[in-house]
Protein: EAL domain-containing protein
Organism: Methylophilus flavus
Amino acid sequence: RAKNEGKNNFKFFSKEIDDESHFRHYLENALRGALSRNEFEVFYQPIVNLRTEQIVGFEALLRWHEPIYGDISPAVFIPCAERIGVILPIGEWVLREACLQQKQLRDEFGFDFIMNVNLSGRQLREFDVVHKILDIVSETGINPSSLNIELTESVLMDNSQSTINKFHALRAAGVSISIDDFGTGYSSLSYLKRFPINTIKIDRSFIMDIAHDSEDQAITLAIIALANTLKLTVVAEGVETQEQKRILRLNNCEKAQGYLFSKPLPSTALRDTIESFLQPLYDQTA
Ligand code: C2E
Ligand code: MG
Ligand code: MG
Ligand code: MG
């Protein structure tokens, strides 16, 4: 029927896929071909050291420029890509892109920025995930210690020996590991001991009201103290205001990430952004 409606084709089509399950079906099909159609792009969000206020690393964040719907949030399409399995080639592509970008920035600035890359649970469950990661590290020529793999708490709930072994293999090769969205999952502090992790990323939901909600502030400061005691790096996610930054810095939070410093950026904007962060330091010595 839609075929015969001429100009109304698109209208009919979009009304149809307004329906939740049709939308999901559309996404699944579109996702399968998105990589080969070059619809993905990796954005990079700066991570700053709160003491020096310099950019010390980036988080690679996937963007999908979908031809009909425009940009679709990774919060929507990543779970879909996991369900249908295409997260494996897509995740591998993101990792390679991010490593190539890291290498380019190192060559350009003579500084080894840390590149954080999100790994889905589906990827971690692959038996050869560690080899895949290390192959890309050596293929792109980056320093393994400049790669940080981000995993969410839900992934750590699977505390099988094979998962723990993968963590140890990554660490042995020099790659570091973050727990992402810390505090939102089924938090069991015991995995801080069981898994060889380097970094805790405090979820944005705690940082959001840190200046006005005394409970959120107490939880955040407790996580920072815990991380510092365990000699883990701690990163506050979603920092948007000067007041949040002030509280975090005052309480020895090492690093932060958020719109206050920078939104996730296309690779073409990285050079200028890094340089704009360097500027205040020059001013101080002038
Ligand atoms: P995440 O790993 O926790 O990434 C942080 C998210 O917070 C990003 O959303 C980022 O844009 C957003 N964010 C950063 N600072 C602020 C801020 O100050 N305010 C607000 N409101 N938001 C901020 P994004 O890029 O939409 O990604 C959402 C989630 O999708 C990520 O959460 C991650 O779980 C997943 N994701 C993104 N890229 C990848 C990927 O390449 N692989 C996998 N497996 N997951 C990915
Ligand atoms: Mg992340
Ligand atoms: Mg996060
Ligand atoms: Mg988050």
Remarks:
- The beta strands are 40-49, 55-66, 70-72, 114-118, 147-152, 176-182, 199-202, 233-236, 255-256, 265-266.
- The longest helix spans residues 87-109.
- Residues 59, 118, 150, 180 surround magnesium ion (ligand 2) (CB under 6 Å).
